[in-house]
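In this supplementary section we document a worked example of the pipeline. Step one takes a protein sequence of length 121 as its only input; no multiple sequence alignment statistics are reported here. Step two produces a three-dimensional model, which step three serialises into structure tokens for compact storage. The input and output of this example are shown verbatim.
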Amino acid sequence: LAGTFIYVLGGAVLLVNLIGFLYPAYMSFKALNTPQPEDDTQWLTYWVVYAFFNLTEQITSLFMSWIPFYFYLKIGFLLYCYLPQTMGANKIYHSLIKPTLIPHLASLDSALQGKSEEKKK
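The serialised model returned by step three reads:
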């Protein structure tokens, strides 16, 4: 009943955003208040993967609109990323994002450093 109300209130976009943000934000908050660094790492990894997914989604949104039931696939992907049974964000980060970014880390740092120095002036 609550899911139906949320769907009627804001549609699939609201439902996906609640699933992609609400639980992970709550678990991130809890992780920050524990002494173990492992849960911090898990949720930081989720947010990095989520950021890359969101960026990719923005770039490919025209094509995504052609996929039937895309929002349900997105929900499944987000659940795969953060559920403790799958730990999908760790798999995606270590197999795709980290190997792609590490070779370019110095140039990214240099570009970001230049931007932050420009803002100081």
